[in-house]
Design brief:
Keywords: Membrane, Transmembrane, Transmembrane helix. The chain is an all-alpha fold. The protein is built from 9 helices and no strands. The chain has one domain. The longest helix has about 40 residues.
C-alpha cells in the first residue's frame, strides 16, 4: 500500500500510444493543456495588431481618410499571423512548440509571403469597409442594388474562410502565393464541414466581443485572436494535410514525417509496448482492519 494510493490496482499498464479522445472532447483537452501559452501568444500577436486596430477605430469615429496611413505598418500583421498560425498548428496537432523561438523563426522565414498577404488583406479590408455600407445605402434607395450588396457580403465570407487555409499553408508548405490562394479557395469547399465549424466559432467570438463592448476590450489582448487561430488550426490543418501535404509525399513515394512515430523501426526501439497483452494483477484482500490514529 502506497502513501497516496494503491498502485497494485488490477488492469493493464499504460499504453505507449493511448486511445485519443475525439471531436470536441479532444479539442478542449488540447486547448486546456496550452491555454496559458495561447494567452501569451495572443498578447504577442496583439502588439502587431495595434496599428490596424487604431486605423479601424479612428476611421469609424472620424471618417477621416488620413488614418488610412496606419495601413502601412499594418502589413506586418501578415507575417505575425503566419507566425501565430505556426505556433497554434503545433499546439493543436500536439507537437513540440517553443513559443518565442517558433514565433520569431516563422516570422522571419515567412516575412515575404506574410507581408504580401498582409497587404492584400488591408486592401480588401478597406474595400469591404467602404463597399458594404455604400451598397447598403444605395439598396435602400433602389432594391435592385441588393444584388451587388449580397454578392459583396458573399465575397467577404468566402475571403474570410479562405484565411482558414492561407496562413496555414504559408507556414506549413513551400507553395508560392498564387498556389496558396488558389488552393485555399478550393479547400474551403473540400473541407466545407471544417470550414463552417471554424466560421461559426469565429462568428460567435466576434459577436460576443461586440456585444460586451467596451468591457471586452480588456480581454482582447489576451484571448480571442489566438483562440480563433487555434480553432482554425485544429479543424482545418487535417484538411491541408489530406489534400495538399500527403499527396506530395505519395507522388514521391515517401512517408509523411508527421507519422514517423507510427512506423518506428522495432530494432531501434528501446522499449516494447506490450501493455495491451498484460493480464490483470490479482491482489489478495487483507482481512486485517486498518489502524487508526487517535
Amino acid at each position: 500500500m502506497s502513501l497516496f494510493g494503491n498502485y497494485n490496482t488490477p488492469g493493464r499498464g499504460v499504453l505507449k500510444a493511448p486511445q485519443e479522445k475525439k471531436g470536441i472532447f479532444k479539442f478542449f483537452e488540447v486547448y486546456g493543456r496550452h491555454m496559458w501559452k495561447l494567452m501569451e501568444l495572443n498578447l504577442l500577436y496583439f502588439v502587431f495588431c495595434i496599428p490596424l486596430t487604431l486605423m479601424v477605430i479612428l476611421m469609424l469615429m472620424t471618417s477621416n481618410p488620413i488614418w488610412l496611413l496606419l495601413a502601412i505598418p499594418s502589413v506586418l500583421v501578415g507575417p505575425a499571423t503566419a507566425a501565430m498560425t505556426k505556433v497554434c498548428r503545433n499546439y493543436s496537432q500536439e507537437r513540440n512548440a517553443f513559443l518565442l523561438h517558433d514565433f520569431w523563426d516563422s516570422f522571419k522565414k515567412n516575412f515575404k509571403q506574410g507581408t504580401i498577404m498582409g497587404a492584400i488583406d488591408i486592401i480588401f479590408a478597406i474595400g469591404f469597409m467602404v463597399g458594404i455600407p455604400m451598397y447598403k445605402y444605395w439598396a435602400e434607395q433602389n432594391s435592385m442594388i441588393y444584388i451587388p450588396f449580397v454578392i459583396c457580403i458573399s465575397c467577404l465570407i468566402v475571403f474570410f474562410m479562405m484565411h482558414f487555409y492561407i496562413y496555414l499553408m504559408i507556414s506549413s508548405t513551400n507553395l508560392n502565393m498564387k498556389q496558396i490562394i488558389k488552393n485555399s479557395f478550393y479547400l474551403v469547399s473540400l473541407g466545407i464541414k471544417q470550414s463552417l465549424w471554424s466560421l461559426l466559432a469565429s462568428l460567435i467570438v466576434i459577436v460576443m466581443m461586440y456585444l460586451f463592448l467596451p468591457y471586452s476590450l480588456f480581454i482582447l489582448p489576451f484571448w480571442p485572436l489566438s483562440f480563433i487561430c487555434f480553432v482554425t488550426c485544429f479543424n482545418c490543418y487535417p484538411v491541408i494535410r489530406k489534400h495538399v501535404i500527403q499527396p506530395y509525399y505519395d507522388q514521391r513515394g515517401e512517408s509523411n514525417p508527421e507519422f514517423a512515430y507510427k512506423n518506428a523501426d522495432p530494432d531501434e526501439q528501446l522499449f516494447e509496448d506490450r501493455a495491451a497483452e498484460e493480464t490483470p494483477v490479482k491482489t489478495k484482500e487483507s482481512r486485517k482492519k486498518g489502524k487508526t490514529i487517535s
